[in-house]
Amino acid sequence: MEKVYQLDAFRAISERVGKFNVEGKRLLIPEMNRIGSHLMAGVFRGFGINASVMETYKGLDLGKKFTSGKECFPCVVTLGDILLFMKKEKERLGARFDPEKYMYFMPEASGPCRFGMYNKYHRIVLDSIPGLEKVRIATLTSDDAYSVSGLIPQAKIQDFRKVAYVSLIIGDVLDRLLWKIRPYEREEGMADKFISEATERMAESFAQYSPKKPISSILEELAEIVQEGKKIVDPNIPQKPLIGIVGEIYVRTHLKSNQDTIRMLEKYGAEVINASVGEWINYTTYDQARLAKVALKLNLKAFNLKEAKESFLKYLKYTLNLLYQYRQQTKVYRVVRNYVDIEEDHKIGHLEKVLKKDNTFSFEVGTEACLSIAAALEYAHAGYNGVVNIFPFTCMPSNLTSSILKPLMAKKNIPFIDVSYDGSFQPGREAALRTFMYQAYQHFKRHGRP
Ligand code: SF4
After folding, report:
1. pLDDT, tens digit, for every residue of 373-405?
2. Is the beta carbon of 72 within 6 A of some atom in ligand 1?
3. 347: helix, coil or strand?
4. Ranges of each domain in the chain
């Protein structure tokens, strides 16, 4: 009897977590990047899908209620988001509440990491709450570089993919614009207000224009926004120490989870650049091409010609995708850099070379550790005044990153700090960040900044 129960539980995971057609459903997107997530919802709406971003972090107690404390913190936060949303919908709609109308969007990643298990765990929790077993979970996976095949009709995939990628990159550049202008704003609060309005404008722009493929009109809107943002800067405020952030993508990007570390660093005199979301997307595409290349070599060596051909075609597909992504990314960054000198993203191939140079780490190990370690070395090489590693408490790749970066940064005399989060407030955290900024300021005084 117990065995039958277990098999049923696994069937629920395979049948109600997957690449389901999201048309006609209300698509619920958890907020990670407070700008990019809303732009992505705008893209879905532009393609006729009723998508919205759920309010975030307010359901943390619910997330904690259904977890043991051993799960990754982003898993707990996102679980709380969906549970609270469903609770409020049930209360709002009463007898009209129909769980089948919703689709919860939770992508995943493969590799030696637990991100691939969030949606399975969320499935188990939703199944334990009467009615919510009918809410299906739509997913994308890093295994195919987050292809949306299966979620939307085949005919729309190419167009959707192009615009969705641009929306993520615009999310990144708006964030970089904010970090570039906020430390130098004429009046406190101007930059935050400006960026909230800019996010709404861009989300509307994506919702309005996506199906007609006019990425250029979206970029024109972006150019206008950047020119307005530039006016917020007070040119009389002297340059500040430059700090680079690396770490786990969700917590370093999600303001509530990281208790707005960037604002705290700015409070103590920093200008900050965080690693981007685009970097991770480019990495997953790069890694698929890299794995196909390895398979191609092995198949050729073993004279498996049929498999070698498949590997070659896969390699070609992901290499072309990556080139396309880089081209789009450069186009977007160029629009902003015409007016404001924001930092560009590292190319993934370059980051792999950085790791190979001194045999510091390997892309064979995978996870974000290879991006974080290489990016921190690049920050140091460029003359940044300090590096911060932001991550969820117990995060495996980030602890690995920390163990490698700490001695390396000490050797290079670059101030470095780990900050981990699990939803609790640590009274000493602000003092630690303030001390780190003091060290960064000393570095700035001695060496200047890029
Ligand atoms: S990167 Fe860290 S937080 Fe994210 S799934 Fe892996 S172990 Fe968990």
Report:
1. 999 999 999 999 999 999 999 999 999 999 999
2. yes
3. coil
4. 2-152, 239-276+345-450
